[in-house]
C-alpha cells in the first residue's frame, strides 16, 4: 500500500515492524530489517539520532548502554550518550550480542546504510526523529541524507517514506521544509486539538494504551496537509487479541515487534 489510507482501501491495517522485527532480531539493526523482510513485512519502523560528528545513526535509546557493548569498549565514557561519540567510535561497537550470541557482530547502522538495506529489500520506512531536542537542526541533517540517498525522489517519497516524531515541532519543521514527505505525530492529542495537528501531520500515531474509537473517527474526519484524511497508526501491539482490538477501533496501521503474530491475527 501507499504511505496512507491502507485501512480505507483494504479493510486491514498495515503491519509495521517496530525497530525492525525486533522480537526476533536485535532492534534497529540491519538484521532486524532483513528479518522483517523474511517474514514478508514491507514496512519497518526505526529511530534516528545524531553522533558527535554529525552522522545520523539508527538507535532507540539516547545512550549506547543497553543495546551495544559501549560500556566494555569505552569503560570511562559513562553514561555513553550517543551524542558524545563519533560515528567511527560507534562503528566499532557490537549492537547484536546483547540480544543473543548468534547476533554478535551486528552494528549500529548509519541512516544511509539502513536506507540502502530497506531499499534493497523493497521495503518502506516509518522513520522516527528520536529526541530531537538533544540534536538541534537534526531535521536538516535528515533531509540531506534522505536526498543524497534518493529518498526524496518522487517515487520514494510518495510510496516508501513516513517521518514521525513525538516532537510536534520537529514534525512541523519536516513538513514545512519538504511538504511532499508524509508525516506522523507520535502521541494522543485531545480531539479538539486535532485540526491544529492536521496542518502539518498526515498521521496521528498514539500508544495503544490511550487509543479510542473516538480519536480514530475524529482523525478520519479531518484532512491532512495534502488533502487526504488523517490516518492512525498505533504502537506497540504484540499479541493477537490486541491486534484485533485495535483493528476494531479502526486503526490504519499497527506497529509491532511481532509482525507475524499481528498479520496472522488479522487474517
Ligand atoms: O513508532 C512508535 C514507537 O516506536 C514509539 O515509541 O519508544 O518505541 O520509539 P518508541
Ligand atoms: Ca520508535
Task: Describe the protein.
- With 267 residues, the chain is of the alpha/beta class.
- Helices cover 34% and strands 16% of the residues.
- It has helices at residues 6-10, 30-38, 70-73, 87-91, 111-120, 138-148, 154-159, 168-177, 194-197, 213-221, 240-248, 259-266, and strands at 14-17, 43-50, 56-58, 124-129, 161-165, 182-186, 203-205, 231-235, 253-256.
- An eight-stranded parallel barrel has the order 1-2-4-5-6-7-8-9, surrounded by five helices.
- It is globular and about 50 Å long.
- The protein starts with 5 loop residues before the first helix and ends with a helix.
- The mean pLDDT is 96.
- The site of calcium ion has 3 residues, from strand 2.
- Calcium ion binds next to strand 2.
- This is Glycerophosphodiester phosphodiesterase.
- InterPro entries: GP_PDE_dom (IPR030395), PLC-like_Pdiesterase_TIM-brl (IPR017946).
- Residues 13-266 form the GP-PDE domain.
- Keywords: Signal.
Amino acid at each position: 500500500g501507499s504511505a496512507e489510507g491502507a485501512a480505507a482501501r483494504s479493510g486491514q491495517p498495515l503491519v509495521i515492524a517496530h525497530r525492525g522485527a525486533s522480537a526476533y532480531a536485535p532492534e534497529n539493526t540491519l538484521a532486524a530489517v532483513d528479518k522483517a523482510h523474511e517474514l514478508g513485512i514491507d514496512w519497518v519502523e526505526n529511530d534516528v539520532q545524531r553522533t558527535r560528528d554529525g552522522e545520523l545513526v539508527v538507535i532507540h535509546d539516547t545512550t549506547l548502554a543497553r543495546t551495544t557493548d559501549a560500556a566494555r569498549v569505552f569503560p570511562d565514557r559513562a553514561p555513553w550518550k550517543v551524542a558524545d561519540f563519533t560515528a567511527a567510535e560507534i562503528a566499532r561497537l557490537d549492537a547484536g550480542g546483547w540480544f543473543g550470541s548468534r547476533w554478535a557482530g551486528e552494528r549500529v547502522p548509519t541512516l544511509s546504510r539502513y536506507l540502502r538495506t530497506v531499499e534493497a529489500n523493497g521495503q518502506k520506512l516509518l522513520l522516527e526523529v528520536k529526541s530531537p531536542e538533544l540534536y538541534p537542526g537534526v531535521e536538516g541533517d535528515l533531509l540531506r541524507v534522505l536526498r543524497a540517498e534518493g529518498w526524496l525522489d518522487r517515487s520514494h517519497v510518495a510510496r516508501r517514506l513516513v517521518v514521525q516524531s513525538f516532537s510536534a515541532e520537529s514534525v512541523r519543521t519536516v513538513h514545512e521544509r519538504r511538504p511532499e514527505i508524509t508525516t506522523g505525530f507520535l502521541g494522543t492529542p485531545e480531539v479538539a486539538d486535532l485540526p491544529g495537528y492536521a496542518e502539518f501531520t498526515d498521521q496521528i500515531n498514539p500508544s495503544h494504551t490511550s487509543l479510542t474509537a473516538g480519536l480514530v473517527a475524529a482523525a478520519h474526519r479531518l484532512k491532512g496537509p495534502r488533502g487526504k484524511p488523517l490516518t492512525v497508526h498505533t504502537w506497540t501491539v504484540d499479541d493477537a487479541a490486541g491486534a484485533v482490538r485495535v483493528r476494531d477501533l479502526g486503526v490504519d496501521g499497527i506497529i509491532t515487534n511481532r509482525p507475524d503474530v499481528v498479520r496472522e491475527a488479522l487474517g
